[in-house]
Design brief:
With 141 residues, the chain is an alpha/beta fold. The protein has one domain: Rossmann fold, CATH 3.40.50. The protein contains five helices and five strands. α1 links the parallel β1 and β2. It is globular. 32% of the residues are buried.
Length: 141
Protein backbone atom coordinates (compact mmCIF):
# COMPACT_ATOMS: atom_id res chain seq x y z
CA UNK A 1 0.00 0.00 0.00
CA UNK A 2 1.22 3.49 -0.84
CA UNK A 3 2.40 5.58 2.06
CA UNK A 4 0.23 8.66 1.75
CA UNK A 5 0.73 9.54 5.40
CA UNK A 6 4.18 8.42 6.56
CA UNK A 7 3.93 10.73 9.61
CA UNK A 8 0.64 11.04 11.47
CA UNK A 9 0.25 13.26 14.53
CA UNK A 10 -2.57 12.57 16.97
CA UNK A 11 -3.38 15.05 19.72
CA UNK A 12 -4.20 13.52 23.10
CA UNK A 13 -5.60 14.97 26.31
CA UNK A 14 -7.35 11.99 27.90
CA UNK A 15 -10.84 13.07 26.81
CA UNK A 16 -13.28 10.72 25.07
CA UNK A 17 -13.00 12.64 21.79
CA UNK A 18 -9.21 12.37 21.92
CA UNK A 19 -9.53 8.62 22.55
CA UNK A 20 -11.72 8.28 19.45
CA UNK A 21 -9.22 10.35 17.46
CA UNK A 22 -6.43 8.07 18.69
CA UNK A 23 -8.37 4.98 17.61
CA UNK A 24 -8.82 6.40 14.10
CA UNK A 25 -5.17 7.47 13.96
CA UNK A 26 -4.05 3.95 14.94
CA UNK A 27 -6.15 2.45 12.15
CA UNK A 28 -4.70 4.88 9.62
CA UNK A 29 -1.14 4.33 10.84
CA UNK A 30 -1.54 0.56 10.63
CA UNK A 31 -3.10 0.74 7.14
CA UNK A 32 -0.45 3.12 5.78
CA UNK A 33 2.49 1.69 7.74
CA UNK A 34 2.98 5.17 9.23
CA UNK A 35 4.78 6.43 12.29
CA UNK A 36 2.23 7.75 14.77
CA UNK A 37 3.32 10.77 16.80
CA UNK A 38 1.41 10.90 20.08
CA UNK A 39 1.27 14.45 21.42
CA UNK A 40 0.13 15.76 24.77
CA UNK A 41 0.50 19.49 25.43
CA UNK A 42 0.56 20.84 28.98
CA UNK A 43 -1.49 24.03 28.62
CA UNK A 44 0.48 26.76 30.39
CA UNK A 45 -1.90 29.53 29.36
CA UNK A 46 -4.42 28.89 32.13
CA UNK A 47 -4.14 31.43 34.93
CA UNK A 48 -5.02 30.07 38.36
CA UNK A 49 -5.50 31.92 41.59
CA UNK A 50 -7.04 29.14 43.66
CA UNK A 51 -4.29 26.58 43.15
CA UNK A 52 -0.53 26.70 43.26
CA UNK A 53 0.52 27.00 39.59
CA UNK A 54 3.60 24.80 39.97
CA UNK A 55 1.53 22.04 41.61
CA UNK A 56 -1.07 22.34 38.85
CA UNK A 57 1.56 22.08 36.09
CA UNK A 58 3.13 19.10 37.85
CA UNK A 59 -0.26 17.35 37.89
CA UNK A 60 -0.75 18.10 34.19
CA UNK A 61 2.71 16.74 33.33
CA UNK A 62 2.03 13.55 35.28
CA UNK A 63 -1.36 13.18 33.57
CA UNK A 64 0.26 13.76 30.18
CA UNK A 65 2.92 11.11 30.79
CA UNK A 66 0.24 8.59 31.78
CA UNK A 67 -1.90 9.40 28.73
CA UNK A 68 1.12 9.03 26.43
CA UNK A 69 2.32 5.82 28.07
CA UNK A 70 -1.12 4.22 27.76
CA UNK A 71 -1.46 5.32 24.13
CA UNK A 72 2.02 4.05 23.29
CA UNK A 73 1.20 0.64 24.79
CA UNK A 74 -2.06 0.43 22.83
CA UNK A 75 -0.30 1.44 19.60
CA UNK A 76 2.45 -1.15 20.17
CA UNK A 77 -0.15 -3.88 20.84
CA UNK A 78 -1.82 -2.94 17.55
CA UNK A 79 1.41 -3.13 15.56
CA UNK A 80 1.78 0.65 15.17
CA UNK A 81 5.12 2.45 15.48
CA UNK A 82 4.68 5.44 17.77
CA UNK A 83 6.67 8.27 19.29
CA UNK A 84 5.41 10.07 22.41
CA UNK A 85 5.78 13.85 22.48
CA UNK A 86 5.17 15.91 25.65
CA UNK A 87 5.19 19.68 25.10
CA UNK A 88 4.32 22.68 27.23
CA UNK A 89 2.79 25.96 26.13
CA UNK A 90 -0.19 27.07 24.08
CA UNK A 91 -1.86 23.87 22.85
CA UNK A 92 -2.69 24.84 19.27
CA UNK A 93 0.63 26.67 18.73
CA UNK A 94 2.66 23.72 20.01
CA UNK A 95 0.76 21.29 17.77
CA UNK A 96 1.07 23.52 14.70
CA UNK A 97 4.76 24.22 15.27
CA UNK A 98 5.56 20.55 15.77
CA UNK A 99 3.56 19.51 12.69
CA UNK A 100 5.40 22.03 10.53
CA UNK A 101 8.86 21.34 11.95
CA UNK A 102 8.52 17.54 11.65
CA UNK A 103 6.77 17.71 8.26
CA UNK A 104 3.74 15.80 9.54
CA UNK A 105 1.50 14.53 6.72
CA UNK A 106 -1.78 14.32 8.68
CA UNK A 107 -3.00 15.68 12.02
CA UNK A 108 -5.79 13.78 13.77
CA UNK A 109 -7.61 15.59 16.56
CA UNK A 110 -10.84 15.22 18.51
CA UNK A 111 -13.53 17.82 17.89
CA UNK A 112 -13.63 18.70 21.59
CA UNK A 113 -11.28 18.01 24.43
CA UNK A 114 -11.06 19.20 27.98
CA UNK A 115 -11.32 22.90 28.70
CA UNK A 116 -14.85 24.10 27.94
CA UNK A 117 -14.31 27.53 29.49
CA UNK A 118 -11.01 28.07 27.71
CA UNK A 119 -12.53 26.90 24.41
CA UNK A 120 -15.38 29.42 24.87
CA UNK A 121 -12.91 32.23 25.44
CA UNK A 122 -10.23 31.33 22.89
CA UNK A 123 -11.92 29.11 20.28
CA UNK A 124 -11.46 25.42 19.89
CA UNK A 125 -8.04 23.88 19.43
CA UNK A 126 -9.34 21.68 16.60
CA UNK A 127 -10.70 24.75 14.78
CA UNK A 128 -7.39 26.59 15.05
CA UNK A 129 -5.46 23.55 13.85
CA UNK A 130 -7.83 22.96 10.93
CA UNK A 131 -7.52 26.58 9.81
CA UNK A 132 -3.77 26.99 10.28
CA UNK A 133 -2.10 23.61 9.67
CA UNK A 134 0.15 23.18 6.67
CA UNK A 135 -1.11 19.59 6.16
CA UNK A 136 -4.49 17.82 6.09
CA UNK A 137 -6.39 17.67 9.38
CA UNK A 138 -8.88 14.97 10.34
CA UNK A 139 -11.30 16.07 13.07
CA UNK A 140 -13.04 13.20 14.84
CA UNK A 141 -16.41 13.67 16.55
Amino acid sequence: MARHYPKILVCLDGSNNAKRAFSHACDLARNYDSTLYLMYVVDKSIGLDFFDRSDYLKLLREHGKKVLEKAQNIARNNGVKSKPILKEGNVSKEILNFAKKEQINLVVVGSKGFGTVLRFLLGSVSNKIANQASCPVLIIK
